[in-house]
Amino acid sequence: MAPSLTRRLISIGSADPERAERFLAARELEGLDGEALLEGLATAPDPDGALLGLVRLIERRPDIRQLVEAGIGRSEPLFRLLGASEALGEFLIRHPEHTDVFKTHLSAEPVGADPALLRESLLRSVGADPGSSRPVASSTGPQAYAALRIAYRRHLCELALRDLGAASPTDFLPAAAAELSDLAGAALEAALAVSRAEAEASFGREEVAAVALAVIGMGKCGARELNYISDVDVVYVIEAEGSPDGAGSIGSASVDATRAATIGTALASGLARAVWSPGREPALWQVDANLRPEGRDGPLVRTLDSHLAYYARWAESWEFQALLKARCIAGDRDLGARYEAAVSPLVWASAGRDGFVESVQAMRRRVTDNIPAAEADRQIKLGAGGLRDVEFTVQLLQLVHGRADESLRVRDTTSAIAALAAGGYIGRAAAVEFDSSYRYLRLLEHRVQLTKLRRTHLMPTSDDALRALARSVQGVLETGRPSPEQLLDAWHRTKRRVRELHERIFYRPLLNTVANLSPDEARLTPEAAQARLAALGYRDPVGAMRHIEALTAGVSRRAALQRQLLPVLLGWIAEGADPDGGLLAFRRVSEALGTTHWYLGLLRDSAAAAERLSHVLADSRLIADLLEVSPESVKWLGSDADLEPLTLESQWQEIKSKLSRHTEHEAAMRLVRLIRRREILRIALADSSGVIDPDAVGRALSDADQAAVLGALRIAEAAAEEADGALLTHVLVVAMGRQGGREIGYGSDADVIYVHRPLPGAEPEAAQRQALSIVGTLSALLTQPLKPPVLAERVLALDADLRPEGKNGALVRSIDSFAEYYRRWALVWEAQALLRARPMAGDDSLAHDFMALVDTVRYPEELSAADIREIRRIKARVESERLPRGADPSRHVKLGRGGLSDVEWLVQLLQLQHGARHPELRSTGTMEALSAASTLGLIPADEAELLAEAWRLASRIRSANVAWSGRASDLLPSSRRDLEAVARWCGYPQDQASALEQHYLNVTRRARQVFERRFYAAEP
Predict the structure, then answer these.
(1) Which positions of the chain have pLDDT values less than 70?
(2) pLDDT digits over 866-888, tens only?
């Protein structure tokens, strides 16, 4: 072999250049321009197969040489067809008279065949009159079958030439699939004409003519998206024409129902035989009637009434999904149209059946589970990320939403994707992905089947077959030689995209809820909405309708999405404590975010966001107000990970970054306060969604406060340095009370004390003045409200009343002054207060030294009897003097019976008594210290569990009051509405407010008994 020819053959894609050279030397190709041959072969998906086919074809039809000699401009379609389809090459070799298809292709405009012309052509092939309403063939048996199949394949060649020559095969694919469906319908029409002729020999012309048979295409054929080779799914409908009692008569013939069924069965069987039976011309494809009522066990043909009776009583959900694509493709068109009209309402009502969505989802899973293991990784159609994922997703969305939106009532997948995108049921990006992926997968399936015209949905495994497939999916304008690896990479990427979209959309929770709405509710008509709003519990249906009308008015995509979402959201919002307020809040958030590209799509697609948003807006004034000024935070609701509170370190890093870029103090502090506001909202959303537990809420809120104080202190110190020319002292902010224990709620202030230590060389008096200036600036920075203000938002007020000497003492002291005071004057209540002291912001070295000082005070070696009596006296005084006048002690969660104060004072007494000897008790957190006391045996485990339950419940109610109303309150609500809202926040089911009330009163009553027994029984 000449080395140059070998290299050339390899370069054009020959897998066996030695064999190719032998064929090039064949006598059939003698005298042909070698360069023209090689140029033509270079355009073939499989050059070796094209070369073999060309030699065999020229042997049967020598004038094909003229096409090759005319040059690549005229011969390219020949090479493309022979290199893409061995089966169509064999057809032309069997019937060389049809090689004129190449000349016809070159002389005609590349447009699709008219369905009417296809029908006429195939009917004429069997000698039937296309103008007859019920054509009867003039030939029967194998002769008619062969003529029908030859005419079919002739048209198939014409289509394949246009398909293989398309500039963009994926763009051409819907047209190719539609023409394949029309061609199949025409073939069935001709086959029915043959079957009529054969049936007349058995039943007589008049009886056969008295029976109308409509062939209903199902699946891909019904949707006009058929493959090159695929089963054609059909359902047969018959009708005995004539008398109203079901008997038909033409002339002297009459046909009763039984006789009509017999004739109809013969017609249907003969039709399938003409298409599928063995013969000298191979069969076309199987006619599959298993989608008929009762499947294989049911009669092959039924009357329209029989079909409808079955669908009304016995049909399963999957049968209505199959009927989505039902279309009359052959036979009696009037009967077929009546069938379509009769089943259409059943199809679009089917999504309202109990468990419909779940049954469709389960069916898709069964399809995947039943794929043979050896085929799972090769499936283009059935496997994960395959065609079925697209089709099931699209069909489920159509069936659920198509009840109310008639624009979705289309049969084919690409049109359905476009309609779903236009209506906002899937996002534009998802629609583009779905459409392009579906076309690409169908193109792969087409090209795999075209090779041998065999029904397969598996990717080939050999490199040669993969290489040919890669080249066959290229458009004529595409260049380059794609490799098998590139093809497989593109296929796997497509499968991953499809699977991700399928899992996100196919299992979206809105589908179940929408499916359970009535058609009127789903359409959101004013009459249905008014009635539904009142039934759901909206107190002001008229006002709610105004909000709905404002959200849904117009023809914009935003309005369309709102119309889709609101029927579902109204029900979820109504489950909240304040549906009217929730709907108003939803309108405000939507108006703020409605023009963004992600908001409404998130609510439509997210597994959690829509329901979470509906609930929090109706259950929490705090969240509703915060979302109104930070609406972009809605995005967090779609992901638990986004709702996880940021750590203190993360917040501090962000704050330091902001401060480094903003030198103007007020602007810098605004950014710090915005970060705190954002994190409080994140915590509240996580709390309401159950992402974090109540103990974590307290820690997260404390971290948000601490990060803000850290930022404010840095700004205050910078301001003092600018004013005084130098920094003279370090200031330490020490958290006290619940802030020190990292167990605050949404309405808690921050109890603190301030410590400073002059820097070396600084005048003590000047350092003290600067410390006071820093503290004053710090407090002012934190308490200045943000704009726009949020009614329910808590500014961070720093309360320094727990400092030495209380309100009468110095606001800030040096560490030496603290040491002297604690050595000489400290009272037992101050030691008790220091149990929760925790450094919050300031110099680390100062914090270490101050906490070492504090430990000597709060963990005394011995607690005297006088100290114990003083603690009891102060506790009694707090109960008598601080409890609000008229407040019910049994309902006050802080100072009342068995509330926060009781548990905390008992735990703190144990810490004062035993903390010096048991380091385990040295915790600023109440629950940690209580757990340690139980472990040490200082309090029985059952009593510790009871106290912890009472404390946590009281804390939860306290936070729930703020979350619900936006106002701090230490009372268990007595109003039913408020109590119901608090119960919801505390995790109780709907309408269980009394259960919360009874539980709280019971557990705090028993906690008070434990408190009195342990607190007052301690030895003085």
Answers:
(1) 1-3, 108-112, 242-253, 477, 507-529, 531-532, 607, 788-794, 1018-1020
(2) 999 999 999 999 988 888 888 89
From 475, 499, 514, the end of a domain falls on 514
- Asked whether residue 472 falls in the same domain as residue 412, the answer is yes
- Cα separation of 677 and 130, whole Å? 77
CA dihedral 318, 320, 323, 324 (to 10 degrees): -100
pTM of the predicted structure, to 2 decimals? 0.72
- Span between the terminal Cα atoms of the chain, in Å: 113
Q: Which domain-ending residue is among 557, 588, 619?
A: 619
Q: d(Cα 1017, Cα 1020) in Å, to the nearest integer? A: 9
Give domain status of residue 756, yes or no.
Answer: no
Long-range contacts: 915-919, Cβ < 8 Å, 24+? Answer: 915/835, 915/858, 915/859, 916/859, 916/860, 916/861, 916/862
Helix (H), strand (E) counts: the chain: 47, 12
Residue 144, C-beta contacts closer than 8 angstroms, at least 6 positions apart: 126, 127, 137, 194, 197, 274
Residue 377 lies in a domain: yes
Say whether both 889 and 992 belong to one domain: yes
Same domain? 298 vs 179: yes
Q: Comparing C-alpha atoms, which of 497, 478, 507, 504 is closest to residue 439?
A: 497
User: Which phi and psi angles does 684 have, rounded to 5°?
Assistant: -65, -40
Alpha-carbon distance of 424 to 556, in angstroms, equals 10
Q: If DSSP codes are grouped into helix, strand and coil, which group holds residue 734? A: strand
| Six-digit token string for 158 | 């014409």
Cα–Cα distance for residue pair 324/311, rounded to 1 Å: 13
Reduce the secondary structure of 99-150 to three states and give it as a string.
HHHHHHHHHCCCCCCCHHHHHHHHHHHCCCCCCCCCCCCCCCHHHHHHHHHH
Q: How many whole angstroms separate alpha carbon 737 and alpha carbon 745?
A: 12
Q: Does 475 lie in the same domain as 361?
A: yes
Instruction: Measure CA 432 to chain center.
Output: 16
Place of tokens 């009891």: 872
Same domain, 534 and 442: no
Q: Reduced to 3 states, what is the DSSP secondary structure of residue 974?
A: coil
Domain count, the chain: 4
Q: Locate 295 and state its tokens.
A: 């499947």
Check residue 795 and report its DSSP letter. P
So what's the pLDDT on residue 922?
96
Q: Say whether both 573 and 467 belong to one domain.
A: no
Q: Cα separations (Å) of 58 from 18, 54, 76, 170, 334? A: 21, 6, 16, 32, 48
What whole-number distance in Å separates Cα of residue 934 and Cα of residue 945? 9
CA atoms within 13 A on the CB side of 620: 29
- Among the listed residues 328, 335, 338, 339, the one whose alpha carbon sits nearest the alpha carbon of residue 189: 328
Neighbours of 25 (CB within 10 A): 9
CATH code where residue 993 lies = 1.20.120.330
- Rounded to whole angstroms, how far apart are CA atoms 571 and 586? 13
Instruction: Answer whether residue 728 is part of any domain.
Output: no
Find the domain containing 531 and state its range: 518-619
pLDDT tens digit sequence for 628-679: 889 999 999 988 999 999 999 999 999 999 999 888 988 899 999 999 999 9
How many other CB atoms are found less than 10 A from the CB of residue 280?
Answer: 10
User: Looking at residue 296, which CATH number applies to its domain?
Assistant: 3.30.460.10
- Residue 887's alpha-carbon distances to 446, 598, 880, 884, 890, in angstroms, are 79, 48, 11, 5, 9
Could you give the C-alpha distances from 802 to 374, 798, 830, in angstroms and in order? 74, 11, 8
Specify the pLDDT at position 248.
44
- Together in a domain, 189 and 334: yes
Torsion of CA 193, 198, 201, 205, to 10 degrees: -10
